Amino acid sequence: MTTPREGAGEFVTHRMLSARRIKINELRNKVEELNQQLIEVERENKILKRQNAIREKQIDRHESEDSEVRT
Q: Considering the chain, what is the average pLDDT of its residues?
């Protein structure tokens, strides 16, 4: 048999555990959100690196053509 005081203790314990579960779920959601942002940034970075390499090749070709014209 539980006394009113024990019942109150169980209620508080239940509330604390519930609050903890909620906080853990919030943190898990935040981790997932940040992982998705990381994936997007990595994709964007890959695209930008590829574009940069293409532009560098174009610049090199243009500079090469300019030097051939001057000689």
A: 90
Alpha-carbon dihedral of residues 25, 31, 35, 38, nearest 10 degrees?
Answer: 150
| Distance of alpha carbon 51 from alpha carbon 59, whole angstroms | 12
Farthest CA pair distance, the chain: 103
**C-alpha to C-alpha distance for 68 and 52, rounded to whole angstroms:** 24
For residues 23, 27, 30, 35, the Cα torsion angle rounded to the nearest 10 degrees is -160
- Find, among 31, 11, 29, the residue nearest to 19 by Cα: 11
What is the pLDDT averaged over residues 2-27?
A: 87
CA distance 5 to 25: 30
Structure tokens at 57: 């090749």
